[in-house]
Amino acid sequence: MDPKQDSVVDLAAARAARVYRQPEPRAAEPQPRLLRQIYGEILRDERRDQDRSLDDVARAVGMSKQYLSEVERGRKEASSEMMRSVCDALDLPMEQLLSRGIRRITAHRTLRVSRSGGVELCAA
After folding, report:
1. Domain HTH cro/C1-type, which positions (predicted)?
2. Which fold does the domain 35-112 belong to in CATH?
3. Count of Cβ atoms closer than 10 Å to residue 29 Cβ
């Protein structure tokens, strides 16, 4: 007789000893960025391109340096009047701020063919 056939297996011990592989956690879907974050990035990029400090631009606008910093980081939503003032201080036409915002919003979108044969616009 084969010794393996006569052995007794403790199923509970075998199950406890078995290492179960945990499923890989799915990567969280990236949250879509808010408009205030996109506009803040554009304003910050423009200010840095001009080699101007937060303090310099904030004084030109008449707001605190801390507030302008929060606007640039997308943490505060400035009124349209404040945005116009910041754009004026940076010699950035408001239309250019808006068009740059549109380009940044749509930069990560792609087209794909759906199963039904149609075309879908998808955020990447």
Report:
1. 43-97
2. 434 Repressor (Amino-terminal Domain) (1.10.260)
3. 7
